[in-house]
Amino acid sequence: MRSFDFHQSGEIGDAAGALGREAAIIAGGTNLLDLMKIQVMTPERLVDITRLDGLSAIEADGENLRIGALVTNTHLAGDSRIRAGWPLLSRAILAGASAQIRNKATTGGNLLQRTRCPYFYDTSQACNKRAPGTGCAAQGGAGRMLALFGTSPDCLAAHPSDMATALTALQASVEIRAASGEIRTVPMHEFYRGPGDSPDIETVLAPDDIVTAVLLPAPRAGTKQTYRKVRDRASYAFALVSVAAIVKVEDGRIAEASLAYGSIAPHPWMNHAVEEMLVGQAPSDDLFARAGEALTAAPAPHPDTEYKRPLLRRTLIAALREATGLSESAHGVDTARIPA
Prior knowledge:
- Residues 1-221 form the FAD-binding PCMH-type domain.
- It is a single chain.
- This protein is an alpha+beta fold and 340 residues long.
- It is built from 13 helices and twelve strands.
- Strand 6 and strand 7 (183-187) form a beta hairpin.
- Helix 5 runs antiparallel to helix 9, helix 11 (272-278) runs antiparallel to helix 12 (285-295) and helix 12 (285-295) runs antiparallel to helix 13 (308-324).
- It starts with a strand and ends in a 5-residue tail after the last strand.
């Protein structure tokens, strides 16, 4: 690990003033410290924000919920209000990491974790995300964990966060404080950037912006929510594909559907055309098969990820069958309700 300056802030304006292109925020550090040890990330300054006020609470705002950026994954997943009104989020977090990591990892840090592409981690390989302009070794290399959608010739990496996928399906927003003190909110589906020709720039954040909270809209009472994750092993591996599904059936037809997909794109993926196919229709295996085909119609950008197309189709179908009651097994489905 290279040497760096350490700045511990007690006030958010001070923290913002210490940030810049050569600085990085540290809170739980579960991803950042690993990357610093192998010199994939080499910030000249770490800005510790763990002592900032107002970022460690989960607070009601009417029927909405504000989750501070420093709320740990353990605290968030176990909160009774989350488990009642937004159970999908709790399930996704619990599927994402061991208890030890959840105890340290924060809400803001989870959103900002870096890709697990092996070429990003290997400093001997070309990687435009790690070293802009050097090329993308994944283009001609092994690519089993790479993305299916939203890639560019400069980057094929997939985003690994389970929590971000759930938050996207829940239509959450990210609260951001600029160095000027201005506060803005950005919907989850607009928070991440596609790789384009600048894959090193992953979000809409400026170098001195600070994520202060995640905002959950009012619970969608009566919806069925499920998070289905396919991975190489059951013990906290990153997803090969995942599906976050929120569905409501009324009078035998699908009245609402909000779907997000993980580990298949540079950011949590959505396909509104699939949701439009479902709404207004009676749940059926034929309908879900057609939805799966529509979702995966585009060819894989790398031959090693071709297997993800049928895997994603089957995962979507399984999630929809559970959420609509077609499946005899519904052990992974929760009904959202207004928290007490």
